[in-house]
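A quick aside before the break. I want you to see a complete sequence-to-structure record at least once, exactly as it would be stored in a machine-readable document. Don't worry about memorizing anything.
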Amino acid sequence: MIKTERFSNDSGSVEQVSAGGVAYRLNGQSTEIAIIQTAAEMRWQLPKGIIDPGETAEQAALREVREEAGIDCELVAPIDKIEYWFHGNFDGTRKRYHKQVHFFLMRYVKGDVADHDHEVTEARWVEIKTALDTLEFEGEKGVVLKSISMI
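That is the input. The structure line, written in tokens, reads:
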């Protein structure tokens, strides 16, 4: 089982493991993916979140896409795992985080992006190449580029 968060005493950093997805649908001749704008930072990104205890990465990815983008999907295949470091103050103490995110390609089944949760300001469908110009993080842009050849 993948651990979702642990504090590393030797380096003083927190390890986090998350999962998310590139949820796509075909709209005529174009391929669209669901992206979200986070409420706290107001940036565009792929839906993702921490894997809960007892969940697999696949289960967490489907749950996070449902919660943050308001849609139900089916898994197609793993895309990639990205890693990055950041500093955060989530509990009143500034810490260094090492995050790993497992991304999966997902086919849209049903739902409306307007049904996203409170952590998200807006979720929308965008043409996949437009997403590359809109997404904030280079790692997520790389995941989307890999997904293009998989769709």
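Two observations worth writing down. Residues 57-69 form the longest helix (13 residues). The first strand starts at residue 5 and ends at 8. We'll return to this after the break.
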